[in-house]
Automatic annotation (TrEMBL):
It is a multi-pass membrane protein. One of its GO terms (cellular component) is membrane. The chain crosses the membrane at residues 12-31, 43-64, 85-110, 144-165, 177-203, 223-244, 256-281, 287-303, 315-335, 355-378, 385-405, 425-442. It is found in: Membrane. Its main location: membrane. CDD domains: SLC6sbd_u1 (cd10334). Keywords: Membrane, Transmembrane, Transmembrane helix, Transport. The keyword Transmembrane applies. InterPro entries: Na/ntran_symport, SNS_sf. This is Sodium-dependent transporter.
């Protein structure tokens, strides 16, 4: 089957891979994670994790996709018949994520609108929980929140539209629009944040190194965890995207570019977020450490409060939430493409049918999170996926390939045959030993914290 879809340009592939990598994890996960795990000192384990696991795994996933030219299940089945299930496991994890990820994008769409006139009023937290999500009286399950439902439908329409148009005309075009726009918007946000009073206070808190924490195993686990999540590794995404690469593509180089671009955006987000938190701290006469937050709390509770205190609040708020929407959409498209490609190949159906069936099912399931009790459900599913889905699927992947398949040398020679940078023993050590040990340890930690 040599009529497989392909990216139009190398830049198109790189933007799509970056679009998947750059997401909410960069904007709301990295800054707080770095702060809680040693601040400036966190950069050491973080860089170590990027070079010993992140980029080596990206190279591996690009190689798998490029060599076998198939979705994750199909690529794994070509490596060895008994490994097809690893691909399906990864696709399943992505599928589950794609049922609640669009909810967060939907909230961000509404909040970019709420920003004008700061409709959350003086109690941003209360507004989010009680007025917007109507969580206060969950009542019976089944009562939809219209202000979540409508933007959710808009998200699905956008996703269906781009996925339906295919790799080059859909996914590539979407990322060529979203990612440059996101970078421009984010640069404006960072410059604005840096010129606010108190910004330096925030940066000081963010970069101040606590070297004593380096000896703590959990800091290293946090660094590896951030890298895996942030680079969209072990979600079947990078295998699928790389399967659309032309034969002549520099795999290793592309992996380094994706890895460093994602980390650069992460650093930029850390600076923007902490400069803004410094502003809040100085306005309310608190220590920066008292206002630090991550995740949903940062975006929908703390940031609205800060935005209200800013000059030109409407514009800043709009740009901030628009950046969440763009970062979220490009990641959402990538997760959904994993099952579109898998279904298309497994059942030999057209792209349109695979989008309608896979995306349709995910869209229906996403309605559960548009309910009044949606936030709690989202929290539970997300924690479960993060604790088990991700670490396990990375572990399956790397152990299967390094220990049970033909071995890493086979993949190394494929990558080397098309890449400028040649891989050495270091790559096999990173994937065959370091990564399995770290992922195994991570898995045990998760289990332990769950059971205790
Ligand atoms: N890599 C994305 C981020 O850092 O935000 C998150 C992500 C996207 C995770 C897609 C998983 C996924 F399937
Ligand atoms: Na990321």
């Amino acid at each position: 089957m040599e009529n497989r879809s392909q990216w139009g340009t190398r830049l198109g592939f790189l933007l799509a891979a970056m679009g998947s990598a750059i997401g909410l994890g960069n904007i709301w996960r990295f800054p707080a994670t770095a702060f809680e795990n040693g601040g400036g000192a966190f950069f050491l384990p973080y860089l170590f994790a990027l070079l010993t696991a992140g980029i080596p795994l990206l190279i591996l996933e690009y190689t798998i996709g490029h060599k076998y030219r198939g979705s994750a299940p199909k690529s794994y089945s070509k490596i060895s018949k008994g490994m097809e299930w690893i691909g399906w496991w990864q696709v399943a994890v992505s599928f589950v994520i794609s049922t609640y990820y669009p909810i967060i994008i939907a909230w961000a769409i509404m909040y970019s609108y709420f920003s004008f006139g700061q409709q959350w009023g003086s109690d941003a937290t209360g507004f989010f929980v009680a007025d917007y999500l109507q969580l206060a009286d969950p009542g019976t399950f089944g009562s939809m929140v219209p202000m979540v439902l409508f933007p959710l439908l808009a998200v699905w329409l956008i996703v269906f539209f781009f996925l339906g148009r295919g790799v080059k005309k859909g996914i590539e075009v979407a990322n060529k629009i979203f990612i440059p726009t996101l970078v421009v918007i984010f640069l404006i946000i960072v410059v604005r944040a840096l010129t606010l009073p108190g910004a330096l206070l925030g940066l000081d808190a963010f970069f101040k190194p606590d070297w004593s924490m380096i000896a703590d195993g959990s800091v290293w686990v946090a660094a590896y965890g951030q890298i895996f999540f942030s680079l969209s590794i072990a979600f079947a995404i990078m295998i699928t995207y790389a399967s659309y690469l032309p034969k002549k593509s520099d795999i290793t180089n592309n992996a380094f570019i994706t890895g460093f671009a994602n980390s650069s955006f992460e650093l930029l987000a850390g600076i923007g977020v902490f400069a803004t938190l410094g502003f809040l701290a100085s306005q309310s006469n608190e220590a920066v450490s008292e206002v630090v937050a991550g995740g949903v709390g940062l975006a929908f509770m703390v940031f609205p409060e800060i935005i209200s205190q800013m000059p030109m609040a409407g514009l800043f708020g709009f740009l901030f939430f628009a950046s969440l929407v763009l970062a979220g959409l490009s990641s959402m498209i990538s997760i959904s493409e994993t099952y579109v490609a898998a279904v298309q190949e497994k059942f030999n159906v057209s792209r349109g049918k695979a989008v309608a069936f896979g995306g349709g099912l995910a869209a229906v399931l996403s309605l559960f999170f548009a309910n009044q009790g949606g936030l709690n459900l989202l929290d539970t599913v997300d924690r479960f996926i993060n604790s088990y889905g991700v670490a396990l699927s990375g572990l399956f992947q790397v152990v299967a390939i390094a220990w049970f398949a033909k071995g890493l040398k086979d993949f190394q020679s494929h990558a080397d045959s098309v890449s400028d940078i040649k891989l050495g023993l270091w790559w096999r050590v990173c994937l065959g030993i370091i990564t399995p040990v770290v992922l195994g340890y991570m898995m045990l930690q998760n289990l332990r914290s769950e059971l205790l």
